[in-house]
Design brief:
Blueprint (H helix, E strand, L loop, with lengths): L10 H6 L5 H8 L3 H10 L5 H14 L5 H8 L3 H11 L7 H19 L5 H8 L3 H13 L1
């Protein structure tokens, strides 16, 4: 695509398309954001945001990392990961650590229901929780 601006004809400009946000590329090369978007779209290059979102979605869908780990690996905020988890819905709605904590909570309540004479320490040990966490869960349960 011949252009009026010799900057947009450089290999460095073409290589930068889609590797960083369009406004950043525009500032770096001294052109408008619209120019960068037009050249990127004409070349069929996805936007940086689309690429980053796909990367985050892939990490979230694996359901094997915490929100913080996904955020660190993808270079985004924890809030961005949380929003993507919500947007993906049932694919992996919460961190695997949250699911594990909920399973332990349910396990503790079931253990206490089956063994009413067991001490809190025994129940906590049986499901793999700390004693203080078991007291917190059982205290909250009694308050209901």
């Amino acid at each position: 695509m011949p252009s009026k601006n010799p900057i947009t004809d450089t290999e460095a400009f073409r290589d930068a398309l889609g590797t960083e946000p369009d406004p950043v590329t525009a500032r770096r090369f001294g052109v408008s954001t619209q120019t960068v978007q037009e050249y990127r779209r004409a070349a069929g290059i996805p936007s940086y945001v689309e690429v980053r979102r796909a990367q985050v979605d892939a990490l979230v869908a694996a359901c094997d990392r915490s929100t913080s780990a996904v955020a660190r690996e993808a270079g985004v905020s924890r809030r961005a990961v949380t929003k993507r988890r919500a947007a993906l819905g049932e694919a992996c709605p919460v961190s695997p650590f949250v699911m594990d904590a909920e399973a332990k909570r349910e396990g503790l309540l079931a253990y206490v229901a089956e063994n009413p004479t067991a001490s809190v320490a025994e129940a906590a040990r049986a499901v793999g929780l700390s004693r203080s966490r078991a007291y917190a869960i059982l205290g909250a349960q009694k308050a209901r």
